[in-house]
Amino acid sequence: MRKIAVAGVCAVVALAAALALAGDAGKQVTVSGWITDSYCGGKNASTEGKACALKCVEKGAKLVLYSPADQKTFSLDSQEKAKEHIGYEVKVSGTLDEATQTIKVGSIEAAKKADSKG
After folding, report:
1. What is the dihedral of CA 26, 32, 38, 44, to 10 degrees?
2. What is the DSSP string of 10-35?
3. In contact, 40 and 50? CB cutoff 8 Å
4. What are 73's strand-pairing partners?
5. What is the pLDDT of residues 4-32, one digit of tens each?
6. How far is CA 104 from CA 64, 65, 82, 110, in A?
7. What is residue 26's predicted lDDT score, i.e. its pLDDT?
8. Which domains does the chain have, with CATH numbers?
9. Is 108 helix (H, G, I), strand (E, B) or coil?
10. 115 pLDDT exceeds 60?
């Protein structure tokens, strides 16, 4: 009987720990950069790199966000949301899993450009 009680307590502790970790699954972020492909990354992070990025995606590359400011590439969990933004500068908001550098995409929007007068 004592073994069952100990096992029950262990199960409750394990469940509580799992729930606590699930709450800390990532932090909210907004990252600016370019939607590009995982094969070429920063090399295709421009409007000119769009055609190459599309070819790489056809060959199996994943869509990623390359941030020139951070000089980092972030994986994106939503390939569909990213698809329409290939070759464009964007802001991606979502939850970052720091262990895998993957953003669980909440939204992707075009980066705001400063008005150029002159």
Report:
1. -170
2. HHHHHHHHHHHHHHTS-EEEEEEEEE
3. no
4. 66
5. 655 454 444 444 444 444 545 689 999 99
6. 12, 12, 11, 18
7. 87
8. 27-110 (2.40.50)
9. strand
10. no
Nearest-angstrom CA–CA distance, 32 and 110: 9
Q: How far is CA 11 from CA 4, 7, 19, in A?
A: 10, 6, 12
Helix (H) or strand (E) holding 49: none
This prediction has a pTM of: 0.73
Which residues are CB-neighbours of 28 under 8 A, at least 6 positions away?
93, 94, 95, 96
pLDDT at 113: 66
Per-residue model confidence (pLDDT) at position 75? 97
CA separation, residue 47 to residues 6, 21, 36, 91, 96 (Å): 61, 40, 10, 15, 25
